[in-house]
Design a protein that fits this description.
CATH superfamily of the largest domain: P-loop containing nucleotide triphosphate hydrolases
Mean pLDDT: 87
Strand content: 15-25%
Number of helices: 10
CATH class of the largest domain: Alpha Beta
Length: 251
């Protein structure tokens, strides 16, 4: 098996007396879509924040692309190819669609920029931004205000904002949150087109999306890993069916 693009080893995090993640160990393989599911309060978003670098674990290690990044901040991890799409939209409504993607591209730049206007006119950044928008079907909306997008288009824009960073791993924190059935279906198909090219760690409550995309699934309960396995194995597990999928003994 190829070396994992992401390895978590015994990640532990508490807030006072509240133990949120408990010795979490998991791997994401190159090209894999690895789904992270669990009931509300299981610690999923706290875990993603520790992976992204916006939250420091109390103990344990985060190894990304063979490098221990546990003590690096979020911008440093982004520059190494770790891209995050948030549960709550981080689109700037007052910017154009194109400007949002250019702004996201700057997160991976090590060159000093002497003004926003200079960055917006840079041909390299613009080419990268248009390419990312093309991948999610939003090229024609590039000059429009982000505030004018539908909710599903906003989620697609956020994917473009991640793609423009040329990620080595996508952290997707509930990308279907707030979308309707048709929007969710379109976003699932969009993510399917990226499958195999960019590995993903996906948090999602929409089980149809999880089982349509995931190569493996990890179930987090009370901050600890309950089971990791292929989707069919996880779906068939009695404890998972009763505690999380909402099915009883007869299901």
């Amino acid at each position: 098996m190829s070396e994992a693009i992401l390895s978590l080893r015994d990640l532990d995090k508490s807030f006072g007396a509240l133990h949120v993640t408990r010795k979490v160990t998991l791997d994401v393989a190159p090209g894999e879509v690895h789904a992270l599911i669990g009931p509300n309060g299981a610690g999923k978003t706290t875990l993603i924040s520790q992976i992204a670098g916006s939250l420091r674990p109390d103990s344990g290690r985060v190894i990304f692309a063979g490098e221990d990044v546990t003590h690096l901040d979020a911008p440093s991890r982004a520059q190494r190819g770790l891209a995050r799409v948030f549960q709550i939209s981080n689109v700037v409504d007052s910017f154009t669609v194109l400007a949002n993607v250019v702004l996201s591209a700057l997160a991976t730049e090590t060159t000093a920029w002497w003004g926003w206007g200079v960055a917006m006119k840079d041909p390299g950044l613009r080419e990268r931004a248009f390419y990312a928008l093309d991948q999610v079907g939003l090229v024609e909306r590039a000059p429009d205000q982000a505030a004018d997008l539908s909710y599903g288009e906003r989620r697609a824009l956020e994917l473009a904002m991640g793609l423009v960073q040329n990620p080595r791993l996508f952290l997707l924190d509930e990308p279907m949150a707030g979308t309707g059935r048709e929007e969710s279906r379109r976003l699932t198909e969009l993510l399917r087109t990226l499958k195999g090219r960019t590995p993903m760690l996906l948090i999602e409550h929409d089980m149809s999306t999880v089982f349509a995309l995931a190569d493996r699934v990890t179930v987090l309960v009370d901050g600890a890993v309950a089971i990791t396995g292929a989707p069919d194995v996880v779906r068939a597990d009695r404890i998972v069916r009763e505690a999380y999928l909402g099915e009883g003994e007869a299901a």
